[in-house]
Amino acid sequence: MSEPPTTATGDSPRRPLPIVADHERPFWEGGARGELVVQRCRECGGLNHPPTMRCRHDGSAELEWTVLSGRGHVEGWTVNQHQWLPGVPAPYVVALVALAEDPSTRLLTNLVGIDPAEIRDGMEVQVTFVRPEPPDDGLDDDVWLPLFAPAAGP
Amino acid sequence: MTPARFEDAVVISGVAQSEIGRRLHRDPRALTVEACVAAVADAGLRLDEIDGLSTYPGAMSVGPGFSGAGVREIHDLLGLDLAWCSSGSEVPGQLGAVVNAMLAVAGGLAQHVLCWRSIWEGTAQGSGRREGYGAGQGRVGGPMAWQLPYGATAANLAGILVNARMNRFGLTREQLGAVPVGNRANAALNPAAIYRAPITLDDYLEARMVSWPLSLYDCDVPCDGATAVVVSRREHAAALDHPAVHVEAVGCAHHDRFMWEYGEDITRISSRWSAAAMWDRTDLRPADVDVAQLYDGFSIFTHCWLEDLGFCGVGEAGAFVEGGTTIARDGALPLNTDGGQLSGGRLHGYGFLHEACLQVRGQAGARQLASRPQVAVVGVGAANSGTTAMLLTGG
Fold first, then answer.
1. CATH code, residues B6-127+223-239
2. Which residues of A touch B172 (CB under 8 A)?
3. Domain ranges in chain B?
4. What is the pLDDT of residues B42-81, one digit of tens each?
């Protein structure tokens, strides 16, 4: 098996931004406070991501926002080497991170601050946030993207 | 009383393709009409006998090149008189439109339904009319809102799938190269294929990375072309001048979310659900299958289909295809005998159905298998977007 490239950028100031729906806003804006905010069901305690309107585990409408530890582990990853987006220069790591509080819930994200050759299945990571430059379209959404970096030692 | 199976009420009476090319610079409606008229003639029908239309994805204003012609355009261009029609993209994979046609015919809403998939991504990309992912968009909505801010595209999600299978199942790049190399060998016998010059495993291994460990030859090739299929009532089989293609079983199930990155298991795709549903509707078993035409929008999808259809265990497709002997034309399970989408062009699922029908009819020309297949399996669709599995038999 070939080795992955040894450099990857985490700094992509001109990323496309999500159109934020009302029921998704706390997730996107939690990063302003350094908080990973995910939707949780009051009835069954299950996490839901992306945010929903009825719990995907038990159908309950009793959904609330919870601040998580921001810890998780790498469930899957790839090193993108093709430039798809003008504002996101390659290479960069696209990853799936399983959340510590409920590993069946995962986020699609980028891994930053790590040599791609050092990434391992299951490695512990910690959230970090970036606030991309918003387009000049008059919206005042304050979108912060949760990215992940290697967790500090135990 | 056992309810009647819709599969038993229908036959695939005609198939055809338009001219196919990397960039044809032709009106996609002309390509669509070309395929449709030829398929109707192949079915032994006149245009005025077609009373149903069904297509994927239907007319679309976004993604230039993704849809060549919708139902209303073809209805008007062919001057048809319809009893039923349907189109759309939210179906169980691209072949969902053909399943809809089968249900309409079996249910008595139509006698002969003309189905097609038309695409012109090659010309659209080449002319600059198809924008790249997210180009010019400051903000993105829908499922892409969870992907593009991270620079994540379909190729990246496929790269994650490949890497997860390497880490957990021991899949190697040499094994992953077997389908692209084998498909290319098959494409040499298909005059309509986009790429026909053979490639070696070394060529595969040296190709540039797109999203490590997924490389260039793991990706299908955008093209222009249309495929059309006619679904008729079973009674029409006797009127055909070629063997009818019977539908033994269809599976469309999807017990999962429809977002690739949030599926239950990141090493699997939705073929796991449709393949199981298909086998539930037949007494035939994987050992009865003579030829397989399995989706290869990314080469790793074919691995998933092979496993989920039961030709090998989950995680064992790498070993199954390694070296290419088993999946070669003269192997135990000939695979993608027209070159698939990796070499034949991204006809978006319908090339597999077209090839399966020709092989079962014994009319695949230079690439016809030495022993005419009696049973063919078609698996179309990818990732977690919904899929259709279809088992076809010769008349």
1. 3.40.47.10
2. 1
3. 6-127+223-239
4. 999 999 999 999 999 999 877 789 999 999 999 999 999 9
